């Protein structure tokens, strides 16, 4: 087990017993009233929201074109662009609180070392919590139970949480959708809200009704969309037998990460990445709306690399010291427009709405893409960041499409798709960058999962989905360039325990 939580000195044995006894009312399995609002109040300091935010604490937003200038020509041209969201480094040690709802699979297949590793990981999480945070624990097998309502992580709260963790026992079937529903219900039915909320769902198997699990998962999440409560869902799939399609869809629907833990002893790296993100997020609930503007140069917005493919989309949380890039493509038909010595055009505007987690306030920034139009010369410069992020999202889309082909047992087509993608990246103008090298490696690695269908089902599906989602959202326990300093420190701490 990981580091234990010591009992406060002023807590007598009899009082401690009463506290634990009072928790029994929350352990009534499927007969529990899921709509009950039993979350503990936030501390007074957390309820005081500052309306002042310095420029150093806000995120920077800017739009970028792939070249330092553009020249119309007789040929059709396509160029990538980005909306860049950049957060400052950690400015202060005191952070905002977070509500974390842990939904844990305790089916029979989780017995033995699996459940013990989960317990150790959760206990470690408690050591990183402060009195600004709250934690809830839900277990699910053949039914779901709330072992701990949202509880403030002061000394007493950590004792309650550790006692709840110790009561995790593996038996029964796997009702993933029911556990998910319970977790979301806790997030929706709160008397108080921290500025950041996350559900962490961990499972090693498939839902008891696997044939309808995907559809029921979608319906479960959509059922709560009208609540306007902001939260992310991060899912962990243990081993090769979990339902990667369902777990990845759960995370993708709420802008969370999907972590494939192929070997159970590797849980620490995945959990460090997830927990580090939660504890260092600067901006959340990010919505972007792109608009085309009039221009003397004919152009069209031909593609947006977003979850919807639409001009209105959401983005994952931005962490301290982190950046997120939304990528879109501008196309220019052949043109003989007389530009003279040069002009500037602003073809695209972006409205970015988000919540600053420190204050809880919604903010909007409006930015425009400025493109310099001038005659062709030898002074052309390519924006490496724009191009590498273009190939990042393109590789993610290739991996996603290859997974869809493989699900249809079209393995040769899937393999050909990722190998063609790797070939394109090897010959691109930014092929020597660290990120593109990682993308090439992952595309080639994915091709090995498409050798036969049994290999694909034995972890191949999960690994391909994991790579696709990680590169799309710039996450991943295996990709150091996607991690900030908080995640790296968290990983270092966990390595000393496991």
Automatic annotation (TrEMBL):
Residues 22-55 are annotated as: Disordered. Residues 22-31 have a biased composition (Low complexity). SMART domains: VWA. InterPro entries: CLCR, VWF_A, vWFA_dom_sf. SUPFAM superfamilies: vWA-like (SSF53300). It comes from the Eukaryota. Residues 99-282 form the VWFA domain. Residues 43-53 have a biased composition (Polar residues). Coiled coil: none annotated. This is VWFA domain-containing protein.
């Amino acid at each position: 087990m990981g580091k234990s939580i010591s009992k406060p000195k002023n807590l007598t044995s009899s009082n401690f017993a009463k506290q634990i006894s009072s928790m029994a009312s929350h352990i009534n399995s499927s007969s529990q009233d899921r709509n009950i609002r039993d979350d503990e109040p936030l501390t007074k300091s957390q309820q005081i929201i500052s309306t002042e935010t310095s420029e150093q604490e806000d995120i920077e937003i800017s739009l970028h074109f792939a070249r330092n200038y553009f020249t119309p020509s007789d040929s059709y041209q396509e160029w990538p662009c980005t909306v860049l969201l950049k957060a400052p480094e950690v400015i202060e040690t005191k952070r905002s609180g977070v509500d974390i709802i842990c939904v844990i699979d305790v089916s029979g297949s989780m017995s033995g070392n699996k459940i013990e590793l989960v317990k150790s990981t959760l206990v470690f999480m408690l050591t990183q919590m402060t009195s600004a945070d709250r934690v809830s624990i839900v277990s699910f097998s053949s039914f779901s139970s709330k072992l701990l309502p949202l509880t403030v992580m002061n000394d007493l709260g950590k004792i309650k949480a550790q006692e709840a963790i110790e009561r995790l026992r593996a038996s029964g079937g796997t009702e993933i959708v029911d556990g998910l529903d319970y977790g979301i219900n806790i997030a929706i039915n709160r008397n108080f809200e921290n500025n950041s909320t996350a559900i962490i769902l961990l499972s090693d198997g498939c839902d008891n009704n696997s044939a309808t699990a995907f559809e029921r998962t979608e319906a479960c999440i959509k059922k709560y969309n009208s609540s306007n409560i902001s939260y992310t869902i991060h899912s962990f799939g243990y081993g090769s037998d979990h339902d990667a399609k369902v777990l990845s869809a759960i995370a993708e629907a709420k802008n969370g990460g999907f972590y494939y833990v192929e070997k159970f002893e590797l849980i620490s790296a995945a959990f460090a990445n997830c927990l580090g993100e939660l504890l260092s997020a600067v901006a959340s609930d990010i919505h972007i709306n792109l608009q085309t503007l009039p221009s003397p140069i004919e152009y069209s917005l031909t593609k947006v690399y977003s979850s919807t493919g639409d001009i209105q989309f959401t983005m994952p949380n931005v962490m301290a010291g982190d950046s997120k890039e939304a990528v879109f493509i501008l196309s220019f038909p052949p043109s003989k427009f007389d530009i003279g010595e040069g002009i500037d055009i602003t073809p695209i505007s972006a409205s970015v709405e988000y919540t600053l987690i420190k204050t809880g306030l919604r903010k909007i920034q409006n930015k425009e893409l400025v493109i310099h139009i001038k005659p062709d010369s030898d002074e052309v410069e390519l924006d490496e960041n724009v191009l590498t992020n273009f190939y990042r999202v393109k590789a993610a889309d290739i991996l996603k499409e290859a997974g869809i082909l493989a699900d249809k047992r079209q393995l040769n087509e899937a393999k050909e798709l990722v190998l063609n993608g790797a070939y394109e990246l090897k010959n691109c103008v930014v092929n020597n960058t660290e990120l593109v090298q990682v993308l090439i490696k992952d595309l080639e690695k994915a091709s090995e999962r498409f050798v036969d269908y049994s290999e694909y089902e034995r972890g191949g599906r999960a690994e391909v989905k994991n790579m696709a989602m990680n590169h799309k959202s710039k996450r991943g326990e295996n990709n150091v360039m996607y991690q900030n300093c908080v995640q790296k420190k968290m990983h270092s701490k966990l390595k000393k325990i496991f």
